């Protein structure tokens, strides 16, 4: 009988996890600001059960419904453009030119990242340039308000709830604060990490004891780590049809974005 316990316990754990545990209820999503405060109160209980501490819960309490985030989420037109137009409006020639200069200026840094994670400089620089213009603009939206608004919004609530929990956990860890600003969808720092991914894949590359996505070194190392953990194969190609193109897809779901990154990366590395 005892020899069967290891096989039975995982099943038992799954059953217990889905059984009702009392008055706790999942936070109910909504499509306008009117239910946001009630959702936050319910979500606070979920967050506490997930291990979020006082600092994270305080930041949640102070979050505000972000109308600009909802507007941006409903209006992502650039991903519907042709590849040529997308690259034109995103300034691909400038990204490539600046990427080449940055690679040459800090060659040892990018070589060290490639040695450790297998990801070429061109890919990291193309992402850095595409996301924030190499750190030129990392967003002006309060991260916690943006990501909790998306977690509350019914359109993609299931996708954003883990990232909302991730943002609160990052606050508990001291990686961000309740006042940290990022992109409209709550993305962080130089390469625009969603908070749940930041929590999971963040790297302290500069050795200061803190993962900081507004530090270029930490952000780029974290990006390389993310791609490697998602299946990047060192030394393999990353253009369409090659093994690592599938990993670029893990970074952004828009096919026009994926193709643009692969093209610009090859031109930077070329």
Automatic annotation (TrEMBL):
Protein name (Swiss-Prot/TrEMBL): Membrane-bound lytic murein transglycosylase B
Any one Gene Ontology molecular-function term assigned to this protein's record: peptidoglycan lytic transglycosylase activity
EC number(s) from the headed UniProt entry: 4.2.2.-
Keywords of the record: Lyase, Signal
Top-level taxon in the UniProt lineage: Bacteria
Signal peptide coordinates: 1-26
UniProt domain Transglycosylase SLT: residue ranges: 36-239
Species for this entry: Roseovarius litorisediminis
UniProt entry tagged with the keyword Ubl conjugation: no
SUPFAM superfamilies attached to this UniProt entry: Lysozyme-like (SSF53955)
UniProt xrefs under InterPro entries: Lysozyme-like_dom_sf (IPR023346), MltB-like (IPR043426), SLT_2 (IPR031304)
Gene behind the chain: mltB_3
């Amino acid at each position: 009988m005892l020899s069967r316990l290891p096989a039975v316990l995982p099943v038992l754990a799954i059953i217990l996890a889905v059984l009702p545990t009392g008055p706790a209820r999942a936070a109910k999503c909504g499509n306008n600001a009117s239910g946001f405060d009630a959702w936050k109160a319910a979500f606070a209980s979920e967050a506490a059960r997930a291990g979020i501490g006082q600092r994270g819960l305080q930041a949640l309490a102070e979050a505000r419904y972000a109308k600009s985030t909802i507007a941006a989420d409903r209006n992502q037109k650039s991903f519907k453009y042709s590849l040529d137009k997308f690259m034109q409006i995103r300034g691909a020639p400038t990204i490539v030119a600046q990427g080449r200069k940055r690679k040459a200026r800090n060659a040892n840094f990018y070589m060290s990242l490639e040695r450790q994670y297998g990801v070429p400089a061109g890919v990291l620089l193309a992402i850095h340039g595409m996301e924030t213009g190499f750190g030129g603009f990392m967003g002006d939206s309060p991260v916690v308000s943006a990501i909790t608004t998306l977690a509350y919004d019914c359109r993609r609530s299931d996708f954003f709830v883990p990232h909302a929990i991730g943002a609160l956990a990052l606050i508990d860890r001291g990686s961000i604060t309740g006042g940290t600003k990022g992109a409209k969808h709550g993305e962080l720092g130089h390469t625009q990490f969603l908070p749940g991914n930041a929590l999971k894949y963040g790297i302290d590359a500069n050795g200061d004891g803190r993962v900081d996505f507004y530090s270029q070194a930490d952000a780029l190392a974290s990006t390389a780590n993310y791609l490697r953990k998602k299946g990047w194969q060192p030394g393999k190609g990353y253009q369409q049809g090659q093994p690592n193109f599938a990993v670029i897809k893990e970074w952004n779901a828009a096919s026009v974005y994926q193709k643009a990154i692969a093209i610009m990366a090859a031109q930077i590395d070329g």
